[in-house]
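Box 3.1. Reading complex inputs
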Amino acid sequence: MSAFLPSKFPLIQAPLAGAQNSAMTIAVCRAGGLGSLAAAMLPVEKLEQEIQTIQAACDAPFNVNFFAHTMPQITAEQQDQWLSLLDQYFNEWDIDKNNLPQGVIRRPFDENQLAVVEKYRPPVVSFHFGLPEKKLLDAVKATGAIVLSSATTVEEGLWLQENGADFVIAQGIEAGGHRGIFLNQDLSTQMGTFALTQVLSQKLNIPVIAAGGITDVSSIQAALKLGASAVQMGTVYMLCHESTISTLHRQALEQATRQPEKYPTAVTNIFSGRPARGIVNRLMQETGFVHPHALPFPFAATATGALKSVAEKQNDTSFSTLWCGQNPTGCKNISAYDLTMELVQAFL
Amino acid sequence: MSAFLPSKFPLIQAPLAGAQNSAMTIAVCRAGGLGSLAAAMLPVEKLEQEIQTIQAACDAPFNVNFFAHTMPQITAEQQDQWLSLLDQYFNEWDIDKNNLPQGVIRRPFDENQLAVVEKYRPPVVSFHFGLPEKKLLDAVKATGAIVLSSATTVEEGLWLQENGADFVIAQGIEAGGHRGIFLNQDLSTQMGTFALTQVLSQKLNIPVIAAGGITDVSSIQAALKLGASAVQMGTVYMLCHESTISTLHRQALEQATRQPEKYPTAVTNIFSGRPARGIVNRLMQETGFVHPHALPFPFAATATGALKSVAEKQNDTSFSTLWCGQNPTGCKNISAYDLTMELVQAFL
């Protein structure tokens, strides 16, 4: 089904929590794409400032992305199992596991973030991990925002359509970072971008945005052939000047861009408690990519974040979240504006 | 890289071991596609007859597909663990686990099959699970056959190029049936069709054939946009008149075709010992999709085949290999000739 995003071109820069700020949003918007701001790891005051910065810089439409998970209750047993799993690493790096620094906790969309949406009225609001509760969602929609959310299966796409999404992002298994999976946590039935985009485009009455493995003009055109009305691209922006990833993450991505055969990615729940795709590294390999004792999202990130922080000081990425999709070959060390101008040739 | 298959159109009907015979090969060839014959489960005499049938019916080029695995040594402990895993089912169906019917054992390409290739000289020979040993491969190539094999990762694609394949099939994670995976058995780094096709097309000097989730004219065109020189399509042929799948398999596919959200597929090693994608059913769910005690390929199939055989007599698909890719929506109950004539519109 054809339909239109408010941006000049139907290309969304994927929200990259922890890897971007308003500078990237602005650069993409100026080139006619739909720039996104990833709000999930921003305190509310910072979120407000970032939106103000975007609105002052450019009057093009933009997207603000929130997470829509529910915060789990953690039992003492879960906590013990989790810390035991990591015990050898705490010893190796001389970390006191009973006194871990808190770090940023990824919180779901709430009344405070809603107040920011109501005040600044971003034209597009996207959610990851489903949708927020109805009262919050209705309030977002009442601002006039177009609402997007990600589906990783056909079932999730139908659920999102029934529960108020205006567009569905078909997040194929190729996509980097956190899987949007929300109806269950079974990775076995997660679908590839090629199949998911086609099937959702056929089965839904609302438009589909393809995501996962899209990296250049030809692959944008391929996604449109599969029935998508728009594309969302994340990994390809991660080497751009505006990307805020660490030097170590940047080096890892550069290697994967040149030699994807040597630096494959995999989906792991070990860093945050939820499945996410990144370049394979030591922790993923040693614990196994998906471990039942990973503390439920978002709480696993406290311990792995502490390990990451200490190891990265020694230039060691054993515990780093090297988020990356299955096709990093399009990544370029140029401005997000220039990259977007290249990519939107697909629509001309 | 552009290059040409000997068929009129660059569309291969995927070899469907256990689901087709020469009738399908012939129908596809007559419509200008490259029909395949799946040889892995055929005795040599039957293989000869089938090739004779094809050559008598049609002088178009065709493909014969063989498996290239190595036969594993099974220990008594492996056998015990495997039968223990299935014990409850043997009891449930009153099967004597010490006296299982042998069934068809999938054997790798050997001197006897080579003799058939040398005698009948099929224009294309494809292998699954890598390539046969060099002496056998060289002999196949000496017949003039174009040699294809499947890669499921970038690393496998480079390996096949270095080791004598003329074309590489990019078998994305969407594909139904057995994964061609051969360099290791780690499913975590298996790639989606969208990303794999693009990356292999960029990295290889030989042409790439996209496979997995391709189901209609638009998706063929999408695969070409991703850099593929040709496509290979399997699931879409499985409801054709020429398909030899059981009535129960046909019914399951028809359901998945109508309601893919209700009948998802998953990759499992439980039926044969090697990962293969099929519609989720009871055995897959109860043992878990991938179980370390599944007897190495091809030997697991003896026990699961016995269960399947008994259960299917009661119209029960708990143990059936319901092979199917992630997008069955293009399946049609028409002749493979008519289906191919529709699909090749993509190239006109």
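In summary: The first strand of chain A starts at residue 11 and ends at 13.
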